[in-house]
Design goal:
The complex is a heterodimer of chains A (161) and B (75).
Chain A lengths: L3 E10 L1 H4 L2 H14 L3 E17 L2 E14 L3 H10 L3 E8 L5 H10 L30 H18 L4
Antiparallel strand pairs in A: 1-3, 1-4, 2-3
Chain B lengths: L1 H11 L2 H4 L10 H7 L9 H4 L3 H16 L8
The chains are: A alpha+beta (161), B mainly alpha (75).
């Protein structure tokens, strides 16, 4: 019997499977059984849009798990997940400093960050944001006056050739 | 003058050192989003103001977050 160590796993579930909590529990439970792991905590972390497409999916359900398992079984666990259809990706990190209590605490307090509501651009479209508007053309009478003043100055400064 | 300089140095301290953060977590998107540009590129140490230790941790955390599709790969 080998030593079991604490691991943290973030499973990325397919949204159809991930929203069925019983199925998630069953899938993770089966994985744990196969890798001789003991589940410490399992939690649905968030369902969100992925930053990029993974296996053609744009959304995914994140499930956070802490478990104790023998080190040599982690490779098998990752291979099982690669073959699994419900889980599209997994990130397993060893957490040697975490006790069971600490892991539970971390899992319970960890909340997915939700970005503040989108800025209201008003009349401006999203593409126009932050773009400097060209000032409205000056009234014609004014322009003439400015031109006249400018011409004088230019003539003064121009070298005579 | 000397006092002023001292104060300035304290302000310059790395944000994680100031908050006494032990480990930067890949799940903490609120923090990680401040470590990357709008494109998703990691800020330089000079720009982010992190100390060596925390910059390494931030780098690790951003890379983990990218792998699990929480942050985009640079594009």
């Amino acid at each position: 019997m080998s030593v079991k160590r604490m691991y943290e796993a973030m499973f990325l579930f397919d949204p159809t499977a991930g929203n069925n909590w019983d199925q998630v529990q069953e899938v993770v439970g089966r994985l744990m059984e196969r890798s001789e792991g003991e589940l410490v905590h399992l939690k649905k972390w968030d369902e969100r849009r992925l930053a990029y497409e993974v296996e053609g999916r744009k959304r995914g359900v994140y499930v956070l798990a802490f478990f104790m398992a023998p080190t040599e079984k982690i490779v098998d666990l990752e291979r099982d997940i690669r073959l699994s259809e419900e889980i599209i990706r997994v990130l397993v990190i060893s957490r040697p400093k975490y006790s069971v209590e600490k892991a539970k605490e971390v899992a319970e307090t960890s909340e997915a960050y939700v970005a503040p509501p989108h800025h209201d651009y008003g009349d401006e479209s999203y593409e126009d944001r932050g773009r400097r508007r060209r000032p409205a053309p000056p009234v014609e009478t004014e322009e003439v006056a400015v031109d006249a003043a400018g011409d004088d100055e230019l003539n003064d400064n121009q070298p005579t050739s | 003058m000397k006092d002023k300089r001292k104060k300035f140095r304290e302000v310059l301290k790395c944000r994680f050192c100031r908050d006494k953060v032990e480990e930067i977590d890949y799940k903490d998107l609120q923090v990680l989003q401040k470590m990357v540009t709008s494109q998703g590129k990691l800020y330089s140490r000079k720009r982010s103001g992190n100390c060596a230790k925390h910059q390494r941790q931030a780098q690790q955390a951003v890379k983990r977050a990218r792998f699990i599709a929480l942050l985009p790969y640079v594009g």
